[in-house]
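Hi P.,

Sorry for the delay on this. The queue was packed all week, but I finally got your sequence through. Input first:
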Amino acid sequence: MDYFLTEEQKMIQDLAWQIAQEKVKPVAAHHDETGEFPWEIMKILADAGFFGLYIEDEYGGAGCGVFELVLATEQLSRACGGIAVCYAGSALGTFPIILFGSEKQKEHYLPDLASGKKLAAFGLTEANAGSDAAAMETTAVRDGDSYILNGTKQWITNGGEAEIYTVVAMTDRAKGSRGASAFILERGMEGFDFGKKENKMGIRASATRELVFQDCRVPKENLLDREGSGFAVAMKTLDQARPGVGAQALGIAQGALDEALSYAHSRVQFGKPISSFQAIQHMLADMATQIEAARALIYAVSKMIDSGAKRFSKVSAMAKLMASDVAMKVTTDAVQIFGGYGYMKDYPVEKMMRDAKITQIYEGTNQIQRNVIAGKLIRELASAQKT
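Then the structure:
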């Protein structure tokens, strides 16, 4: 479909595709096998200006938005979902500063993040506070001009590699979710350490570690927004970031379709390419249709966010939900089309299937997305009935 991209957006899309094909695709299997963090690709993306796409120009960014981030993430994910999430994960850690940072905080942190000199990460999830984010146990206690953080964050993308962390902790447990606050931390702060690098099923190129706080002293100037707004910071950040997760899933799905279509055209059985068989044709048709529908939704939601819309939680959840479910279905079908070869690591689709799974889980499981969507629908109905 023609989405009527501007010349600048087409350039972003084309450059991301070129980097994906020429730089990412040749090393994807290596990083998947070794789990080595793809610093060389991050440097290429930084030199290309990709880390500044979604950051205002006054802080060294390109002054674009979520839509341009989505365009870049989608193309990178076609080649490797794991490497793409190293890039997109920095956006997740940066969004709280963009949305809630003071002018001084933005001036201090955003230029280095926009240039790609430093990566960011977002610390919300804990061992006992996954979908139930309000159950977090990490605390931040005011002590003079500082806050003392104690606790652990789990499964943090870019953990240990990023230098800037936006972290949510409880400042007043008696207030429940309204007792959470958000802070900006820097790697190297005393009392701030990392757990082991997790050995994951998919997106293995990305680093996933625990963040460990043991009497970690954080200056009060590093408080984001105000005390008690941490849960709002987290939820609005996730609303802003979910189309990006959708774009990761979308790119993985498109990459799997690319591979399946090429294989079906060249694989001969019973004297014919298997693409001539109706069973395969129907699978390819369904895969392509589902991908295009997910793309249309993600692009529309991204543009809605960039337009300054105030309420987009429902449609943001829809974009993440639909795209990740599509990615899991499409990659599974791609493995099926490859048959026994699809199950082998010599071919890329088994990796795509492994990478796709996490998109149904992180930044809110798809069951939680359905809760969000249904909750909004019910409240909208109740509001309509009152009027």
